[in-house]
Amino acid sequence: MPPPVVKTVRDLIFWQYAKIIADSAGFGKKNYRFVMRKFKQLQKGEIFWNEIREYVKERERKDECIFCGAKTNLTIDHLLPRCFNGPDNEKNVIWVCKRCNSSKGSKRLYEFWTVKKGLKGAKYEAPRIAEGKYLKLVYEVLKQRNMLNLSIKEIRKE
Fold first, then answer.
1. Which tens digits make up the pLDDT trace of 55-74?
2. Which residues make Cβ contacts (< 8 Å) with residue 22, sequence separation at least 6?
3. pTM value surpassing 0.85
4. Which of 63, 51, 104, 44 is nearest to 80 (CA)?
């Protein structure tokens, strides 16, 4: 559960991305102080996510399933499935093995990772590259639909 300062969908995306920053900096996703500091900096526009960071990291791990590390039977997977109107572009695709692709099916990233690793795994163990790309994509899609300022409380009521 995110802290009470997370009030909107935008905040929730920034909170998740702040955890990625904390993990990449060597502090871990559970370091509340560091995550909160990065969250506030993202909120204020003092720091920005880099649009090419995941692309570069993905190139470093080319020819490998982003979920399990398999190096054979690779296929393209949509992070935000097409059945949920996920775009068919490079921002929404990752390389995964056929086994992972089949088990993911039409699940979104956090749904898939919850099934695979449990709720705690989805919160703290989603693959860095996939999670970074997914959050940026979801942010972009929701921004286009004017949904970033939706209240978390209102969403939970429905």
1. 556 665 678 999 999 999 99
2. 28, 29, 31, 34, 35, 38
3. yes
4. 104
